[in-house]
Amino acid sequence: LGPRAGGLLRADLASRSACERLYREAMDRSGGIDIWVDNAALFVPDSAPDADLDRQHEVNLGAPMRFLFQMAADNVPACVVFLLDARIARPESADAPFAGYTLGKRKLASVIGKSAADLAEIHLRLNGIAPGAVFDVVKKGKVRTADSGTGVYGW
Q: Cα–Cα distance between 36 and 126 in angstroms, integer?
């Protein structure tokens, strides 16, 4: 990939070092970032046997914030779009079986709102989008998750 060419990178977003490598590789391979679309999500019911609330927190909140803060520290003039979830607007959803996911996305929305004006001064523009459901979570009685927290980022 040459400068300003598009591409995809993968990383385990629960790993801080993997997030740092992902960011650096994106910068190195592309020559800079114009648009960063954050669709990081780990969507697992809190009661599932493999539910790991710390991992959910790292993927749903920690990784997006680390990328944002790194771009700010590097003075990257980019547009960052965070895909949130319509659940953040419903207070009762924090008591639902996906509270770990919902609370992380709600906190991320708060960070976006509070940081947007300050980061605009360095031409780092933020936008949060909260669409409705993207896929069926429960199908035939089995829980289906998006993945294990591995994110795909494009630039």
A: 10
Each of the 155 residues of the chain gets a pLDDT tens digit; together they read 345 566 678 899 999 999 999 999 999 988 888 899 998 888 888 887 777 888 999 999 999 999 999 999 999 999 999 999 888 877 676 667 888 888 899 999 999 989 998 999 999 999 998 876 554 444 444 444 444 343 433 33
Contacts within 8 Å (CB) and 24+ apart, 15-20: 15/58, 16/58, 16/62, 16/66, 19/63, 19/66, 19/67, 20/66, 20/70
First to last CA, the chain: 11
